[in-house]
Amino acid sequence: MSKKFWETLPQGSVVLEAGSSAKFKTGGWRSMRPKWIEENCIQCMFCWMYCPDMSIKVTAEGKRAEFDYDYCKGCGICALECPGKKGKKAIVMEEEGK
Amino acid sequence: MGKIVAVTGNEACAQALKQINPDVCAAYPITPATDLMQRFSSFVNDGKVDTELVLVESEHSAMSACIGAAAAGGRVATATSSQGLALMWEMLYIAAGTRLPIIMPLVNRALSAPLNIHGDHSDGMGARDTGWIQIYSENAQEAYDNTIQAFRIAEHLDIRLPAMVCMDGFIVSHSIERVEYIDDADVKKFVGKFQAVHPLLDLDNPKSYGPLILTDLYHEYKRAQHEVMTKVPKVVLEVASDFEKMAGRKYGLFETYRLEDAEMAIVVMSSAAGTTKDIIDQYRDKGVKIGLLKPRIFRPFPYLEIADALKHVKAIAVLDRADSFGGYGPLFMEIAGSVMSMASKPAMINKIFGLGGRDYLPDQAEGVIDELIKVAQTGKVPAVKEYIGVKE
């Protein structure tokens, strides 16, 4: 007898696949979008450290790269923490879709 | 085989936990369950068990720690009462929904307000819908035996649900009774080695507990949770059969007493069943055909099996040691659910008794039977729900 769909669910809703949250793209939740202004970036990596969603990409050389907009929810922590260069922020928040 | 001792219900349960030697116990003291875990903590301190005892700052934390330890892959137990259980409320659902076989003696006690430390079933009945298996015990022997059986039931690979083993606060938890202990080796063999399912400490296979599940799958998870509860009665009876082979004491989903040829029945749980049986004997001597049904497994509730056991009676009195204000007593509602399936329905009355530890005395049982005789004769029920033993 074939099992009903609900009988095939893992017991106790345990997620048995490691790292499966990568499949759940949360970028669509964003209303504010961070913008990286490379000329003001001092590569302090504060944004990478503070990002709660691991949405700051890093190059093979360990340098800050573009945002990963598939997962960035637009919380703005990176923009807040960014020290910038000579008073100019390297990350600014802009309204999504503008 | 075994050893006969004079102990309290709490002491007997602590002994069962000692013989089972759980991996983790997280507990917070609350009257009247304090003494149970205090005794168990002595076993930990004296090196009689290998259990990791986690002393936490509240019952909410106690159940949280139990959930964590059970998810990690351990055999886990705790104990509580009343406000402690109420404070665990949120975590009780998580333990059951996550299918963690945690064992918890619940020393039944009234809920505040007004503040009261004595025995009634308000706490257990409040946790009725949490998804825990609930087993009620009449005396210290049953509390001990049920604790041992609860591990086998909860940990069964078809079940994996948490279980409460209930006994009446003070009346059973603090009264010294004759109890037959089973040999350590026999208990160990009976309970068997713990089999972890999806343990977090299996580091080669990482996994996540407690995901967010919304409209897409929550309904299906609850359907699956209902299904597993329907499998519990079969496992309870299998475990009871094995237990009888080991200890010689017989258990079922419920107990019947002089019910087979009865025209009337009293349904009551836990310690009050003992007093009621005595009074039934007195009425039987006078030729009154009265019997008793004592539910043992309250969740899942064996509706059809109980209906079958009660189908020949003309009148039923359901005695509740808890109230649902604005409703009938919780046990009455379940028995009404059983009666619903009967072709010929008996008349039913509901008596609320013994709240906050008010003694349930023989004259109360006599009063119930006298009324039941009239109900059976006339088929008329003057009032469905009434308080008994209340000062008027």
Give the topology, please.
The complex is a heterodimer of chains A (98) and B (392).
Chain A: E1 32-36, H1 46-50, E2 56-58, E3 64-67, H2 77-81, E4 91-95
Antiparallel strand pairs in A: 1-4, 2-3
Chain B: E1 3-7, H1 9-20, E2 24-27, H2 34-45, E3 52-55, H3 59-72, E4 76-77, H4 82-97, E5 103-108, H5 122-126, E6 133-136, H6 140-155, E7 163-168, E8 177-181, H7 184-191, H8 218-230, H9 232-247, E9 254-257, E10 264-267, H10 272-285, E11 290-295, E12 297-299, H11 303-310, E13 315-320, H12 330-339, E14 347-352, H13 362-378, E15 385-387
Parallel strand pairs in B: 2-3, 2-4, 5-7, 6-7, 10-11, 10-13, 13-14, 14-15
Antiparallel strand pairs in B: 1-8, 6-12, 9-11
Structure, explained:
The complex is a heterodimer of chains A (98) and B (392). Chain A is α+β, with helices and mostly antiparallel strands. Chain A has one domain (24-95): Alpha-Beta Plaits (2-Layer Sandwich), CATH 3.30.70. Chain A is built from 2 helices and 4 strands; from the N terminus they run βαββαβ. In chain A, the strands form 2 sheets. Chain A has a two-stranded antiparallel sheet with strand order 1-4. Chain A has a two-stranded antiparallel ribbon with strand order 2-3. The radius of gyration of chain A is 18 Å and the shape is elongated. Chain A starts with 31 loop residues before the first strand and ends with a strand. The mean pLDDT of chain A is 95. Chain B has 392 residues and is α/β, with parallel strands linked by helices. Chain B has 2 domains: 3-247, Thiamin diphosphate (ThDP)-binding fold, Pyr/PP domains (Rossmann fold); 254-387, Rossmann fold (3-Layer(aba) Sandwich). Chain B contains 13 helices and 15 strands. Chain B has helices spanning 9-20, 34-45, 59-72, 82-97, 122-126, 140-155, 184-191, 218-230, 232-247, 272-285, 303-310, 330-339, 362-378, and strands spanning 3-7, 24-27, 52-55, 76-77, 103-108, 133-136, 163-168, 177-181, 254-257, 264-267, 290-295, 297-299, 315-320, 347-352, 385-387. Chain B has a 6-stranded mixed beta sheet with strand order 9-11-10-13-14-15, with helices on both faces. In chain B, strands 5-7-6-12 form a 4-stranded mixed beta sheet. Chain B has a 3-stranded parallel beta sheet with strand order 3-2-4, sandwiched between helices. In chain B, helix 1 runs parallel beside helix 6 and helix 11 crosses helix 12. Chain B is globular. The interface between A and B is medium-sized, with 15 and 21 residues.
